[in-house]
Amino acid sequence: MKVCEIFTSIQGESSHVGRPCTFVRLTGCNLRCIYCDTRYSYDEGVEMSVDEIINHIKLVSVNLVEITGGEPLLQEEGVRELTRLLLDDGYEVLIETNGTRSVRDIDRRAMIILDVKTPGSLMSTDMDPSNLDILKPGDEIKFVITGREDYEWAKRLMAEKGLREKCAVLFSPAFGMVAPQDLARWIIEDRLDVRFNAQLHKYLFGPDKRMV
């Protein structure tokens, strides 16, 4: 597998926000979102075996592991093996994916965090909509909101697809593009049953901090 970086930090997003987490960031992405904050993951990285990755994780001694990217499912075979072995070894595993690759064959014990691309990302037409039917109750859907139009679009999609009945839904303000206070106010005004997702790690360590 080609690995961009492995680091341990505070989980800044999802229902696991605030917990120590080891991140395995894989190299490569098939999208170019306008707000992307990990452009270095497009091509930076080194080849590592699954065993080497697991040995690195074991040395850290943190039970929560997130496999992310780039887009991790571009290396699906390795991700499936890594996920299975970590789960069998008692780790909690999160997989954050941009939604363009099917999550159907990922071990059901892992939590999928499906990043549904909004129009403001300029990548919304690349999504695989079948993923919304595959998700299980323990998974999560994330919308990165760049402005009011994205918010209304995501709210409509939630209603049309019954997303809140499928799993938890996260609304995250695109860093530097929409004020977190504005997004929080819209959610409160609409009494929208979503989790406000503030990217805690950026407030703790800064927007350009790659690792701790």
Which topology does CATH recognise? TIM Barrel
- How many domain modules? 1
Quote the average pLDDT: 94
Instruction: Provide the gyration radius in Å.
Output: 16 Å
Proportion of beta-strand residues: 15-25%
Structural class based on helices, strands and sheet pairing: alpha/beta
**SSE arrangement, N to C:** EEEHEHEEHEHHEHEH
The CATH class name reads Alpha Beta
Identify the CATH homologous superfamily. Answer: Aldolase class I
What does the largest sheet look like? 9 strands, mixed
Give the name of the CATH architecture: Alpha-Beta Barrel
- Strands ordered across the widest β-sheet: 3-1-2-4-5-6-7-8-9
Low-confidence stretches: none
Cα-to-Cα separation, first versus last residue: 23 Å
How many H/I helices?
A: 7
DSSP strand tally: 9
**Helix percent band:** 25-40%
Judging from the principal axes of the Cα atoms, what is the shape?
globular
Quick summary of this structure?
The protein has 212 residues and is of the alpha/beta class. Helix content is 29%, strand content 23%. It has a single domain, classed as Alpha-Beta Barrel (TIM Barrel).
List the helices and strands and how they pair.
Blueprint: E1 2-10, E2 20-26, E3 46-47, H1 50-60, E4 64-68, H2 76-88, E5 92-97, E6 111-116, H3 131-134, E7 140-145, H4 148-161, H5 163-166, E8 168-173, H6 180-189, E9 195-196, H7 200-205
Parallel strand pairs: 2-4, 4-5, 5-6, 6-7, 7-8, 8-9
Antiparallel strand pairs: 1-2, 1-3
